[in-house]
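To: structure desk
From: M.T.
Subject: fold request, one chain
Message: Could you run this one when you get a chance? Sequence is below, nothing fancy, just the single chain.
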Amino acid sequence: MIPWMPAPLPAWVTSNDVSLIREAADYVGLTPSQRAAIVDVLCRDAQRLLRARADRERVLDFRDPLPDGSVKLFARLRAQQRAARTRGHR
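Reply: Done. Structure tokens follow.
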């Protein structure tokens, strides 16, 4: 039991790992063409939703900032790649 919870969690509550596996199960065996068809439908739905919004431009302009850890990791990887290219041109 979690200390701040008054009762144990119900039996249907699962871990994030189990939840993700269950959620993705229908898609695991799909072919690239089947996945592309799903992406196509989702993109068309997104276009319809955006056309219906008064703040369409604001939504399209939004950029979700990367976490600091990701920014640092990407900087390190770019530096490693530049160093590897430099070594390869000698």
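Reply (cont.): The chain is about 60% helix and 0% strand. Let me know if you need anything else for the meeting.
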